[in-house]
Amino acid sequence: MVKTLLRLCAVPVAFTACAAPAPPPNTLAALFADGLEVVDLTHTVSADAPFWPGPAVSPFSYDTLSAHDDGAPSMGAYSVPEHFGTHFDAPVHGGAGLASVDLVSTKELFGPAVVIDVTAQALVGVDTGSVDPGNAQGFPAHGVVNGSGRFHLENLADMSRLPESGAYLIVAPIKIQGGSGGQVRVFAVLP
Ligand SMILES: [Zn+2]
């Protein structure tokens, strides 16, 4: 199956031009009125989530701290690598001195999405564990995208539900101070 890539046209990366998005028929008012379909492009953070195998990867763990035993609220604690499951690669992931996840502007986290088939073009989101294919030498795509000060998304879920154009993305990464990336919740608002 052809790997699908997703690109935010709003991100001014110098790759192929996206078609100019049509005026959005979907509005926040329509969204709040439950009039638009929203697809969650996020894998659940669990031991079953996909991840790129590597030396820095340790398994996801979750410990229950309180389970209403004594009338207290339930609480847990978890441990997870930044680049685990559906996650955000901050610019600094691909180049020293670039923005960490907490410093990416919110203006960059919302935008139209275009789904394209895998090509040599650069990209912002993939449904696999890395923007670089497993047979790549090094991490050229990381260098191109992150190196230009942009982020990308890895291990997106359910991308088959996206139309080729017309969807809008809401990208909400966890705000780790100095983080090279982190878990991200990604919503696609369908046209
Ligand atoms: Zn990553």
Write the layout of secondary structure elements.
Blueprint: E1 4-8, H1 28-32, E2 38-40, E3 61-66, E4 75-79, E5 87-89, H2 91-94, E6 110-117, E7 125-126, H3 140-145, E8 152-154, E9 167-173, E10 181-189
Antiparallel strand pairs: 1-6, 1-7, 2-10, 3-4, 5-8, 5-10, 6-9, 9-10
Bound molecules: zinc ion (ZN).
Zinc ion (ZN) is lined by residues 83, 87, 89, 154, 181.
Structure characterization notes:
The chain contains 3 helices and 10 strands. It has a single domain, classed as Glucose Oxidase, domain 1, CATH 3.50.30. Strand 9 (167-173) and strand 10 (181-189) form a beta hairpin. The two termini are 25 Å apart. It has 191 residues and is mainly beta. Helix content is 8%, strand content 27%. The longest helix is centred in the last third of the chain and has 6 residues, at 140-145. The strands form 2 sheets. Strands 1, 2, 5, 6, 7, 8, 9 and 10 form an 8-stranded antiparallel β-sheet that branches. Strands 3-4 form a two-stranded antiparallel sheet.
